[in-house]
Amino acid sequence: MTTQDTLKKTPLYKDHVALNAKMVPFGGWDMPVQYEGILAEHHQTRHECSLFDISHMGEFIIEGDATALDGIVTMSIKDMPVQSCRYGMILNEQGGIIDDLIVFRLEQAKWFIVVNGATTAKDAAHFQKHLKGGTVFKDVSLATGKLDVQGPTARKILKTFVGDIDKLEYYKFDFFDLLGENVLISRTGYTGELGYEIYYPWDKTVELWNALLKAGDIKPAGLGARDVLRLEVGYSLYGHELEENISPLEAGLSKFIDFEKDFIGKDALLKEKEAGVKRKIVGLLSQNRRSPRADNTIYSEDGKAIGIVTSGTFSPILEKGIGLGFVDIACAQTGNIILFGNDKSRAEAAISSRIFYKEGSLKT
Amino acid sequence: MEVIEHYLYTKEHEWVNIEDNEAYIGITDYAQAQLGDITFIELPGEGDEVEQFEQFASLESVKAASDIYSPLSGTILEVNAELEEEPGLINKSNYDKGWIIKISVSDMDECSNLMTAEEYENFLESVG
Fold first, then answer.
1. pLDDT in tens, B98-117
2. Are residue A207 and residue A341 in the same domain, yes or no?
3. Do B60 and A39 touch (CB under 8 A)?
4. In a domain, A78, yes or no
5. Which long-range contacts (CB under 8 A, 24 or more apart) does B108-112 make?
6. What CATH number corresponds to the domain at position A283?
7. Is B60 within 8 Å of A289 when comparing Cβ atoms?
8. Of B37, B40, B88, the CB nearest to A291
9. Domain for residue A36, yes or no?
10. Which domain holds residue A123?
11. Considering CB atoms only, which of B42, B63, B87 is closest to A313?
C-alpha cells in the first residue's frame, strides 16, 4: 500500500489543493479525482471545455532506426510519416498487455512514446531490455508535464494561445510556440471530444495551467470525470481492460496489431487466434440508473457466472449505468441479457457495443 | 460540515429526526460530500420492517456504491419516491428534501446507541 508520503506529485499538486480538489492515490501519484463534482466536470467537457492535469503519464524518447522499436510494439510503425502518431501496445512473450501507448514519429529516426503513469518504470525496463545497441533510450517523464484541453470549444480556446492550432488534424501532432516554449501538441485525447494534449516543460507547466484557466470558458476536471468520459466512448484503461494476463485479442484491440511483422508476443497471439479466444470484452448497458462496478460478477440469466466487470460507472449522457467486462465467448452476443452484481444483489444489463456515446465532437 | 442540532447520528453517517413516535432518516452532510454526486438509490418498500444498524437501502454515486443502515428499528411508513427520479436531491438537501425513509419507531430506548450532534461533530473530527 502506498502511503500519502511516498505518492508522487505533479507540478500542479499545490494548485489542485488550492482549488479544493479531492486528491486520491492513482498509480502511485497523488491526483485530483474531482474539483466541483464529477457530473459538473463531465457536463463541462461534453458541452464546453475542460483542462486536465495528466502530468503523471510517462514519456520516453528513443533515437535509432525503426527496426529496433518495430519489434517491441504491436502496431506498424515503419510506414508512419514523420509528424504522425499511432496507438498500440507492448506485450510480454505470453501475449499479455504490458501497457498501451502512443508512438510519435518526431524525425525519421527519432520517436516520442507516451505510456501510463503507473507502468512507466516497468515499460522503461522493457524497452531498455529489448532495444538493440546503437539505440538511445531516454525516460523524460519527470521533465515533461502534460495538460489535456478537451471539449467542443477546445480549438477556439487554444487558438488564442496558438494562432495556427486549427491546422492540426485528428490524430496528428506538431510543434507549436506556446507562451514562449516550442512544444509538442497532439490532437488526441481520452474523452471522445475535440481535444489536444500538450507536452510542456515540467517546471513551467504551472504557468501554462494558470494562463489557460485565466482565459475563461475552461475549467479544471479531474480523473473521476475523465474515467466517465472514456467509458462512455469505450476506451480501455490499464489495470482494468488491459493487464499482463489479458491479450489484445480478448481486449478487442486486434486492429492495433500488425500481424505482417514480427513483435514480442506475436507467437502467443497466433496460437490464441488459432485456438480461438475464450472470453472477450463487451459493453454492458444497464436497464436503469444502477451501474455495474469493477469486480462485479457477470451472470447469465439463469444465474451461471460467465464473466467479470472490469469498469463501470453511471453515464450522465445516457442516464443509465454502463460498463465493460469480460464474458465467455459463447455468451458474448450483442443484445444478450446478463446480470451484474454479487451474491447479495444483482441487476440486469444488456450486452451492447462498447461505444455508448457516438455524438462527441472528436473529429469536428 | 453541517450538523443539525436536534438530530441523532450513527457512525455510518446516517441521521434520524424523531417527532413523537415517528422518525425521518437520511444521510449526513459528511456522507453526501464523501460519496459525491449520487446517481441511484435502491429504496425499500413501505411497510417493510427495519432493524437498528441493519441495511435498508443502497446508494450509488458516479464512482461507487454504498449501503445505508437504519439508525433505529421500526416499520417504514413512507419512502421518499422523489429520490428515484432525482437522487441528486440528497446532495442538494441531505437534511431536508433528501430524506430517505420515514418510520414508526418500535423502541425509543435504542436512541441511547446513537450520537448527539455534539458527539457526532467530535466523531467527525476523530475520523479526520
1. 999 999 999 999 999 999 99
2. no
3. no
4. yes
5. B108/B18, B108/B21, B110/B52, B110/B72, B110/B73, B111/B8, B111/B18, B111/B72
6. 2.40.30.110
7. yes
8. B40
9. yes
10. 58-139
11. B63
CATH code, B50: 2.40.50.100
Contact state of B62 with A314 under an 8 Å Cβ cutoff: yes
For residues A184 and A333, membership in a common domain is answered with no
From chain A, the residues in CB contact with B58 under 8 A are 345
What ipTM was assigned to the predicted interfaces of this complex? 0.85
Residue in chain B closest to A323 (alpha carbons) equals B63
C-alpha cell at B15: 441521521
Residue B65 has its nearest CB partner, among A33, A228, A293, at: A293
Q: How far apart are the C-alpha atoms of A70 and A72, rounded to whole Å?
A: 5
Question: Which residues have CB under 8 Å from B41's CB, separation 6+?
Answer: B57, B58, B59, B60, B83, B84, B87, B90, B100
Roughly what angle, to the nearest 10 degrees, separates helices A223-232 and A38-47?
A: 60
Specify the DSSP element, H or E, that contains A231: helix A223-232
Q: Cβ contact (<8 Å) for A313 and B37?
A: no
Considering only the beta carbons, identify the residue of B36, B39, B58 that sits closest to A34.
B36
* Mean pLDDT of the region A234-241: 97
Q: How far is A253 from chain B (nearest CA, A)?
A: 25
Q: Provide the number of structural domains found in chain B.
A: 1
In a domain, B117, yes or no: no
Among A76, A66, A97, residue whose Cα is nearest residue A269: A97
Q: Do A173 and A295 share a domain, yes or no?
A: no
Contact residues on chain B for A34, CB-CB shorter than 8 A: 36
Q: Does B39 touch chain A (CB under 8 A)?
A: yes
pLDDT computed for residue A40 by the predictor: 97
Which residue in chain B is spatially nearest to A34 when comparing CA positions? Answer: B36
Q: Is A120 part of the contact surface with chain B (CB cutoff 8 Å)?
A: no
CA pair distance A58, A54, nearest whole angstrom:
10
Residue B122 lies in a domain: no
Instruction: Tell me the per-residue pLDDT of A33-50, one tens digit each, with 9 for 90 and over.
Output: 999 999 999 999 999 999
Q: Encode pLDDT of A1-44 as tens digits.
A: 445 678 999 999 999 999 999 999 999 999 999 999 999 999 99
Mutation site, B58, B63, B66, B86, interface A, largest A CB count within 10 A: B63
Give the range of the structural domain holding residue B65, as residue numbers without chain letter. 8-109
Label residue A225 by pLDDT band (50, 70, 90). Answer: very high
For residue B39, give the nearest of A227, A293, A314 by CB distance. A314
A151, A222: one domain: yes
Q: CB A71: neighbour CB atoms within 10 A?
A: 15
